[in-house]
Here is the input.
Amino acid sequence: MHRITRIALASCTILLVAGCAKKEPAPDTTAVMTPAPAPAAAPTLALADVAGKWQFNSVPMTGTDTTPTKYVLTATADSAGWTLTFPDKQVVPLQTTVSGDSVMLASGEFSSQRRKSAKVKTATTLRLVDGKLQGVTTAHYAKAGPDSVLQLRSEGTRVP
Here is the structure.
């Protein structure tokens, strides 16, 4: 066979094989992508769900001092009348608000249980988890300096 005939025959064979090959269907680009469903919203916390007395321990999140601050949280079915009561009988009134599944507590200035002769204000955010109130308390001490803020992990169990 001549060289040109071989090239022509080879070219025809390649075209024949390419033409007979199975083709995958092209992806449908007109299909509309549906977004993933939004996660279910956390149930809103009702203050009535946490009304009662709770025994709390709050432990610093950093540092070597792991001594818990102990107190009783008295919670009511509305935002009025919430208090902290410390072992020394000091009672601290709280401002209470709810946002979604969290309850936020803010105190006015009171005598610190952790730092003698110091005044402190606290802000706490709690969630009801497996029958316990859990969250973080941020203590703001009335003196200037790098150690004027302390964060504590807080957990309370309902008092029968």
